[in-house]
């Protein structure tokens, strides 16, 4: 049963929470162009623009770019749902602040170990690569990397648990999971925001536990204990897959909460929505097997089960939410603003990337696409054109709501156009490259895949347009967020 | 060819989805109330269609995995070891660093066109991955090279010529330089 609304924050406390959310938003918005510039550097490097720069720099920048982006949008989505949950629950402001400072510390440590120490394993640091650098990065850089991960992991786990605690204060587990809807029994009304956040964060806790085990096993290896590389790979991808997925799910949760206010219609939990998200709770735990299809040592039934779960995951989370978005907007008295356009297009990007991901999750196709440019193609689609657009929409929505500053419609439309043209144009080269066997994560393309250099050059042009859109967003939304800080 | 087929399937389905979003956005120019029951009924139909498509997709593809079947007997076995930053490829087992070094410098292994060959792939240090590129530079097969494990990749090459092996798993600063070759005759 839901408890009375007295558990919620007072107006003054809410103002404090708003301020912290705006600070999170400004930080995320500032990190975006910096991290995007790192990506720009990588595509420029692949296009041959820096012949005198050693490839070690490419791999270090790749590591910082990918870790930075994954972390930034995870905290962005967490800050977003925490704020929106204020309507229903009482997440801790102190823990949000603690996570903020912890995240900043973690980011600084990551910058030092990558740009200062050339640590370059990529964001999922497959065992035992961090320990075998061929002298490129020193043991201190590896140590710093794991300290950074530990700091981020502790902060984010505490934050995750606190949000779950705040939900548990008001809703029983079965209510928060919408089981009363599933079984057609009377119970409290549960907003989709609460349902999706609960599902995502329960899964998130499982992911963080896996990350802790990975870090502990790396420490054990440093002490001379033998560690199984296949077990480590499973744990690493389990964690990584979950972190990326829940970032998107939390973004979708924000859309369920906010887009109805622009469409003038309601979007409530019902049996299908509850069933769909409860299915996610199970399916997402096993879909990660598709990252290990090319590890033939895994049992074949596990690989096939991975494909079934990956296909299955597309239905509840994807189809139900995408159909819901279309039905919500169709012929609605829609207020098309910067925020609502970004959220609407974010769901579209999530869907487009999801289609490419489902195709790649077919074992037969993955045999030709695994670790080619098709991989960054699909995850950049649902991340950059999906979760990122949604979170940018949320930040602008919040900045405008608090500051009361109106937007200039033509500038909003121009920014959205630049983001779309630059974003999808840049991604098209990843897709085309993947379909033409170009490997991903290559600093320099050898003769066999020399066409990758041309694709990188074309992508650079589109990234320039994308960066222009990002800077325009920073200017427009930044003004509102800065005013919101003093409101 | 599977990659291009997959690419066009993606374009078609993603194009349909984008068209739906444009249609929904365009419809807001003439706002009106919609019948919720019709929407729910449409959702039910859509869910069933997507489920049917996915089940058909699973039925058509799940059996076509690249994993070795015990019933297939390979005519030839080739041993592959990855080590930062080269591949040793040999017709004889590679069990130590000396054999690995010899394999990296020896003449390319020859494989008979049309016969089933089994690559036994492992690593002496970190995770690598062998990406087998055909003479016309198409990625035709791959498997991971993992320390402590042997992955068995079975392929039947029909196109004669020189095949290159590139690393497809980030393995350090020389990742893009890793190489191996063999010939199909």
**Which structural category fits the helices and strands of chain B?**
alpha+beta
Find the structural class of chain A using helix and strand composition: mainly alpha
| CATH-defined superfamily of the largest domain in chain B | Cupredoxins -  blue copper proteins
Strand content of chain A: under 5%
Number of domains of chain B: 2
Q: How would you spell out the order of helices and strands of chain B?
A: HHEEHEEEEEEE
Question: Count the strands of chain A?
Answer: 0
Q: How much of the sequence of chain B is in beta strands?
A: 25-35%
Assign the CATH class of the largest domain in chain B: Mainly Beta
Low-confidence stretches of chain B: none
Shape, principal axes of CA atoms of chain A: globular
CATH architecture of the largest domain in chain B: Sandwich
Q: Please give the share of residues in helix of chain B.
A: 25-40%
In CATH's first tier, which class of chain A applies?
Mainly Alpha
User: How would you state the average pLDDT of chain A, rounded?
Assistant: 95
Q: Which architecture of chain A per CATH?
A: Up-down Bundle
Helix content class of chain A: over 70%
Rounded to the nearest angstrom, the distance between the terminal CA atoms of chain B is: 22 Å
Q: Greatest chain-chain interface? A: A-B, 83 and 77 residues
